[in-house]
Design brief:
Helix content of chain A: 25-40%
Structural class of chain A: alpha/beta
Order of helices and strands of chain B: HEEEEEEEEH
Radius of gyration of chain A: 21 Å
Strand order of the largest sheet of chain B: 7-1-4-3-2-6-5-8
Shape of chain B: elongated
Chains: A alpha/beta, B alpha/beta, C mainly alpha
Radius of gyration of chain B: 23 Å
Largest sheet of chain B: 8 strands, mixed
Shape of chain A: globular
Oligomer: heterotrimer
Strand content of chain B: 25-35%
Strand content of chain A: 15-25%
Number of strands of chain B: 8
Number of helices of chain B: 2
Strand order of the largest sheet of chain A: 6-7-8-3-9-10
Number of helices of chain A: 10
Chain lengths: 271, 157, 254
């Protein structure tokens, strides 16, 4: 790996709209190598969309995305697939393949992309499952797993190709405190032990604070604030404070855009 | 790997059953009219009326299918129908004075050509014409004749 | 209002075009998958074919039995009850076999395919595959499509055969039609061309029903409701398309 720069992913001037809705306008964002970077924002700000843009499941209207210094828009389908092999992604609910066992789910990328012998595959898969503490669940089907277990299996699967970048999409949603603690610990440990970079998309402020090196808060299609969790906590911006402290009203209004209340109740529309 | 075995076994049985069914259909339900000879020779015959004879109808001798009708055309000069049919080359010793008639399989069945052997020493070969023919019996004509020749005492007209 | 019609028509033509491109994509990938990932295809033949066998055989038996009953009672008016075998065989081989099998196939295997693929989409499994640099069209859609295409003609043949057995049971064993004339008349009436027509139909129906099922699943709105709607649409559209194709093929074959 040549040390081009510390920047693993650079997003410059990104604009993307879905239908009539503009999700990102001129977004700039940098993700550093070897760190855990959190991307936070109120629901519906397109955090997941951002991940899909970075892995080019979606194509931006405007702007450049550099991964390892290479513009992903210029890559061919094959190069793209090769690039994606260096990404490991953990989907919100694990996205395990329901017709395969836990073992086969983790083995899936190996079977698709390598010609390893069954013995070697078994070795690799069991190692990864052991790392997430689920070696004993190898023969279960995804249906039999709890939400937290499914996510851990998905993590094992995301790691099985030894990626450079692990992306977590809302890894903490809907988990009980214990499972949550397990995942938080795993995220940190994977990042440091394997020397990879992690990107977490989430809005769980508490968990992010314990795990992230750097956070971006996205709102209205732009980076509203960035920095370490501490810096964000101490930020003076209204929006950042509303988000970090979970206040109901503020720059992000409690009310969805609507005609004037009085006008609508008492005005001509009421007829 | 228990599951894999079930899948393979099930698929194997299914494929065998399916192919067996196809084999059953092609052999058991057809057969009778199935005529496919590697080598054939073509013969023609003129009929005044072919009735509802169609291409691919069988040509039978003594009840055994030995050939198949390949074409039916109208000859505007002689005002006859010319029927061409292929006969299996194995049967190359059919007397050339055999006569061909258009018969019906059963009362309402489809029509076929029946050959009746003659006594000649020369045989039918590629391009021969069967000279003695008997047209299809058209039911309306038959009924018509019957009515005309029918009961002379009928005064209801 | 004209604008509505225009938009509906435009949308229809566009969807139709997209379906053709999708079909083309499947065809392009089919040989490779068939050769290199035959194991995947086998698994889908099992799902679409072997698991549909029971319903196909039960329905085939009773359809054949009904054909026997109806044929017998109507032909008996002309003293032609011996021809009941011929009637049943022609009806089964040329029409009912392929058509009813295709309708049952759409209901049993088509809905299973559509909801399976739709659910995979709704639970991000397809996206996850893309992220793992695996093309879901090749890994998921093509094997299922091929499994359906391979299964349909075999199922139709099984349906016709079991139907004939049903007719045999009803006519020969219950109504006393002579065994010899039952099968003899059948052999007289059915030609190889009739069997070919049935096979061609079942292949075409198999392609149509499988294509529609995977298409609906792959393009389902990734929610529980969207998957449900895709499943319903699979059955409805498959039934319509199968019957239209049936008419067209019959018209050409005659």
């Amino acid at each position: 790996m040549d040390a081009v720069s510390d920047n693993l992913i650079e997003i410059n001037d990104l604009t993307y709209s879905f239908g009539a809705r503009t999700i990102f306008k001129a977004l700039n964002l940098t993700i550093k190598r070897g760190q855990v970077t959190a991307i936070m924002g109120p629901s519906g700000t397109g955090k997941t969309t951002l991940l899909r843009l970075v892995t080019r499941q979606l194509v931006p209207d405007h702007g450049v995305i550099l991964v390892n210094g290479v513009d992903i828009a210029t890559q061919s389908q094959n190069e793209l697939y090769r690039m994606r092999q260096r990404f490991g992604m953990l989907f919100q609910n694990g996205a395990l393949l329901t017709d395969l066992t836990v073992f086969e789910n983790v083995a899936f990328p190996l079977r698709e992309h390598t010609r390893l012998t069954n013995r070697l595959i078994r070795h690799v898969v069991l190692t990864k499952l052991h790392a997430v503490g689920l070696r004993g669940a190898a023969d279960m089907t995804p249906m039999q797993l709890s939400g937290g277990m499914a996510r851990r299996v998905a993590l094992a699967r995301a790691m099985v190709m030894d990626p450079d970048i692990l992306i977590y999409d809302e890894p903490f949603v809907g988990l009980d405190p214990i499972s949550m603690g397990v995942i938080v610990r795993l995220v940190r440990r994977m990042n440091d032990a394997l020397g990879i970079s992690s990107i977490i998309v989430s809005h769980d402020v508490q968990e992010i604070s314990t795990v992230a090196d750097c956070s971006y808060l996205i709102s209205d299609g732009k980076v509203a604030a960035s920095g370490s969790p501490d810096e964000l906590n101490r930020a003076s911006s209204e929006l950042v404070r509303q988000f970090m402290h979970g206040m109901a009203d503020g720059p992000v209004a409690f009310h969805f855009d609507a005609p004037d209340y009085e006008e609508q109740l008492l005005g001509r529309d009421a007829e | 790997m228990q599951q894999t075995r079930t899948v393979e076994l099930g698929t194997g049985l299914f494929a065998l059953l399916g192919m067996g069914a196809l084999f059953f259909l092609t052999t058991q339900t057809t057969g009778g009219k199935d005529f496919s000879a590697a080598e054939t020779f073509q013969v023609t015959a003129r009929f005044e009326n072919v009735g509802s004879l169609r291409a691919r109808a069988p040509v039978a001798m003594s009840g055994v299918t030995i050939g198949r009708v390949t074409g039916i055309e109208f000859d505007p000069y002689s005002l006859n129908a010319i029927v061409t049919f292929d006969i299996d080359s194995r049967y190359d010793q059919l007397p050339d004075d055999s006569d061909a008639s258009i018969l019906t399989a059963g009362l309402l069945g489809s029509q076929y050509i029946g050959l009746q052997g003659g006594g000649s020493d020369t045989y039918l070969e590629e391009g021969s014409e069967v000279l003695l023919t008997q047209s299809a019996i058209v039911l309306e004509n038959l009924i018509g004749k019957f009515l005309v020749k029918g009961d002379p005492g009928d005064k209801s007209e | 209002m004209f604008r509505d019609i225009y938009i509906t028509l435009f949308g229809f033509v566009r969807t139709f075009g997209a379906l053709q491109l999708f079909f083309l994509q499947l065809l392009v990938h089919s040989p490779g998958i068939f050769i290199r990932r035959f194991g995947l295809v086998i698994g889908q033949v099992y799902n679409a074919g072997a698991l549909s066998l029971v319903i196909i055989m039960v329905c085939g038996f009773f359809v054949g039995g009904v054909l026997g009953l109806q044929g017998f009672s109507n032909l008996a008016k002309f003293n032609a009850e011996d021809s009941v075998g011929a009637v049943a065989a022609l009806a089964l081989v040329k029409e009912l076999g392929p058509v009813i099998t295709a309708l049952l196939f759409a209901g049993r295997a088509g809905t299973a395919l559509a909801s399976e693929i739709g659910l995979m989409k709704a639970t991000d499994q397809l996206s996850a595959m893309e992220m793992m640099a695996v093309d879901p069209i090749r890994r998921i859609v093509v094997p299922r499509f091929l499994g359906g295409v391979i299964s349909m003609p075999l199922l139709a043949a099984v349906f016709s055969m079991v139907g004939l057995l049903g007719a045999h049971v009803v006519c020969v064993m219950l109504l006393g039609v002579d065994v010899g004339s039952f099968w003899q008349q059948m052999a007289q009436a059915v030609e190889v061309a009739d069997i070919h027509e049935g096979i061609v139909k079942s292949i075409v129906f198999g392609i149509a029903a499988s294509l529609l099922a995977v298409w609906e699943g792959y393009n389902a709105i990734p929610t529980a409701e969207g998957v449900g709607r895709a499943t319903t649409r699979t059955v409805v559209i498959s039934a319509i398309v199968v019957l239209i194709f049936d008419f067209m093929i019959t018209a050409v074959a005659l």
